[in-house]
Design a protein that fits this description.
Length: 235
């Protein structure tokens, strides 16, 4: 139920953002994107560091250093080989032409990554599936509402299609938590959160237009910690 509320919030916010877009000058739109990029980098970096650092015997240590690097490297190799971002762009452009819609690829991809990759999407969906606790997803819905409205005011109608991605992604995690709880150990969740937050930093950099990062091609990195921890349970 939490995921459904989240998707509805994105749809409503996108519609409002489209309405407000008509009154936003281009320089304000760019300023909004820069602000969103800075905020996203700051928040994601904070979430990452919270998971990355740990205190053991009064000493500050790090966790999962090698796993994070390996996940990102293997993930981007797979993603570039498949060229996920290009496929998503072609799919979105195909819908644009078929239904005579305005450009939606950039908004769809950016919003999908922001709403699906973060730690709240993973942890919130798991809590909803395991305990029926929607609190985290409701908080995420409120945050996504504001973000979707801002994104839609700049990137347009493409943002609304990210609601489908949220339904599929978070819904799948919720169902997995309901019927396969033993597979989702705290270690897997912890590693997924760290890798996910690094991808969010990449999205923030894209918003700042410092360097174009194909974040969608890094998505397979989220699978590597799951595979690693599942293999480790066999030994």
């Amino acid at each position: 139920m939490g995921t459904i509320i989240n998707a509805i919030a994105i749809v409503v916010a996108t519609i409002l953002g489209i309405i407000f877009k008509k009154g936003l000058p281009e320089k304000i739109q760019k300023g909004v994107m820069v602000s969103l990029g800075i905020g996203l980098i700051a928040l994601s970096l904070g979430w990452f560091l919270k998971d990355f650092f740990a205190i053991e015997n009064n000493t500050l240590t790090t966790e999962g250093d090698l796993l994070i690097i390996v996940s990102l490297v293997i993930g981007v190799i797979i993603g570039e080989w498949i060229d996920i971002e290009e496929r998503l762009n072609k799919w979105a452009e195909g819908i644009e032409k078929k239904y005579n819609l305005p450009p939606l690829a950039k908004g769809f991809i950016a919003a999908t990554l922001i709403f699906c990759v973060g730690a709240m999407a993973i942890v919130g969906s798991i809590k909803d599936g395991l305990y029926g606790d929607m609190t985290t997803l409701l908080i995420k819905s409120a945050l996504d509402f504001v973000t979707a409205m801002i994104l839609a005011s700049v990137l347009g109608i493409g943002v609304i299609f990210s609601a489908i991605s949220v339904l599929i992604y978070q819904g799948a995690i919720t169902l997995l938590a309901m019927f396969g709880a033993n597979m989702l150990s705290p270690e897997i969740i912890h590693s997924l959160s760290m890798v996910g937050n690094i991808l969010l930093i990449g999205i923030g950099i894209n918003f700042l237009e410092i360097k174009r990062i194909k974040v969608a091609n890094m998505l397979p990195a989220l699978l590597i910690p799951i595979i690693y921890h599942l293999i480790m349970t066999l030994f």
